[in-house]
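step=encode ok
step=design start
structure_in=
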C-alpha cells in the first residue's frame, strides 16, 4: 500500500539555546523563515507530529555560533543529525533555515520513492539509512534488503564568509568629572561609536563641554570651563541578547579655559591636560537605540595651579587641577548605519 502523501506528513520544531551565553535564533522566527521558504505550513505540536526536528545552539565566542539539528521519528528514534558552525548570528539563522527546510522537503522525495516500490519489504529500523548525510549510518548485512542511498545534502559546516558590516551610532549624554575644575563638573557630551557586526571589539569617542564654574576672592573673579575628548577601543567582557559590559582603554585630552576679572597680572590661556584613560561601561539596547553608563579614571595628567597676583604683588591661588581625573557618563545612542 502506498505511503501517505507529502502534505499528510507533519513536523514539530523545537530550538534550545544555552542560557549562560549568547544566543541568536528565536524559535518562532526560525519557524516563520522555514514556512516562507517552503511556501506552506508543515508544523504542528509535538504530540501530533510524525517527525520531530530539534535544534540546540551554543556560542563559541568572538561572535561565532554552533548548532546541532537532530531529526527524530514519532517514537524518538534519531533519523539524522547535522552540525552547523557560523561566523555570525545572521549566518547561523540562514543555515538553520536551509537545513530544516531540506529535512522537511526530503520527505516528499522519500515518499515518492516508497510509492514506486511499495511491494518491497521494508528493512528493519536499525538498518534504515537516515535521509540526511550528517550522521554515519549502519551498513546492512549481506542478507538484508538493498537500501536506496540517501540524497547527499550540501555541507553547511563552513558558511560563506563575508566581511563584517560596520555599525555606526551617534548620541548625546550627560556626565560629571572630578579633578579638572574647582568642583565636580556638569558636562554635556557628544558620543560616536563604531562597531563591526558580531564582534566584541568597538571604538568610541566622547567629546564634552563642562559648564563654567566661578571662583571669587573679593573683587577678583575667575570663571573656569573645560572641553575634553576621550578616544579608546573597547572590548565586551560579557554580551547578552541586548546587553553588554565593556572594558575600554585609550587616551583623554582636556583643556581648562580660564577667564579672570580684576587681576593685575596674569594670562588667561588654555591649560592642556592629557593622559591614559580606562573605564568600565554597561550598555542596554532596544533595536537601533541604546543607553550606556560608564565609570572611568584618567591618570598621569599634568597638574596646573591657577593663581593671580593681587594689587600688592602677592600670589594667590584660585585652585589646582589633580593628577587623577574621575568621571561618570550617561549617554543615549541611535544606530545610523
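sequence_out=
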Amino acid at each position: 500500500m502506498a505511503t501517505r502523501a507529502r502534505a499528510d506528513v507533519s513536523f514539530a520544531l523545537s530550538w534550545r539555546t544555552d542560557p549562560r551565553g549568547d544566543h541568536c535564533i528565536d524559535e518562532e522566527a526560525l519557524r516563520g523563515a522555514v514556512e516562507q521558504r517552503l511556501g506552506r505550513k508543515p508544523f504542528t505540536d509535538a504530540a501530533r507530529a510524525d517527525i520531530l526536528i530539534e535544534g540546540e545552539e551554543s556560542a563559541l565566542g568572538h561572535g561565532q555560533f554552533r548548532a546541532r539539528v537532530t531529526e527524530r521519528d514519532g517514537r524518538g528514534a534519531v533519523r539524522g543529525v547535522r552540525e552547523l558552525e557560523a561566523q555570525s548570528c545572521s549566518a547561523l539563522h540562514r543555515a538553520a533555515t536551509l537545513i530544516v527546510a531540506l529535512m522537511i522537503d526530503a520527505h516528499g522525495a522519500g515518499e515518492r520513492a516508497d510509492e514506486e516500490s511499495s511491494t518491497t519489504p521494508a528493512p528493519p529500523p536499525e538498518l534504515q539509512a537516515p535521509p540526511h548525510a550528517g550522521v554515519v549510518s549502519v551498513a546492512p548485512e549481506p542478507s538484508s534488503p538493498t537500501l536506496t542511498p540517501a540524497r547527499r545534502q550540501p555541507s553547511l559546516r563552513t558558511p560563506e564568509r563575508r566581511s563584517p558590516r560596520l555599525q555606526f551610532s551617534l548620541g548625546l549624554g550627560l556626565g560629571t568629572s572630578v579633578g579638572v575644575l574647582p568642583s565636580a563638573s556638569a558636562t554635556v557630551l557628544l558620543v560616536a561609536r563604531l562597531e563591526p557586526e558580531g564582534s566584541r571589539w568597538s571604538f568610541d569617542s566622547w567629546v564634552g563641554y563642562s559648564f563654567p564654574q566661578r571662583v571669587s576672592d573679593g573683587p577678583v573673579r575667575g570663571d573656569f570651563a573645560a572641553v575634553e575628548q576621550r578616544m579608546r577601543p573597547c572590548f565586551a567582557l560579557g554580551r547578552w541578547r541586548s546587553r553588554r559590559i565593556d572594558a575600554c582603554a585609550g587616551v583623554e585630552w582636556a583643556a581648562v579655559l580660564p577667564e579672570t576679572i580684576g587681576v593685575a597680572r596674569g594670562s588667561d590661556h588654555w591649560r592642556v591636560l592629557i593622559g591614559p584613560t580606562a573605564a568600565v561601561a554597561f550598555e542596554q539596547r532596544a533595536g537601533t537605540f541604546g543607553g550606556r553608563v560608564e565609570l572611568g579614571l584618567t591618570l598621569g595628567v599634568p597638574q596646573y595651579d591657577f593663581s593671580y597676583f593681587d594689587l600688592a604683588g602677592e600670589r594667590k591661588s584660585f585652585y589646582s587641577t589633580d593628577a587623577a581625573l574621575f568621571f561618570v557618563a550617561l549617554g543615549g545612542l541611535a544606530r545610523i548605519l
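step=design ok
step=annotate ok -> The chain has two domains: 6-127, 166-335.
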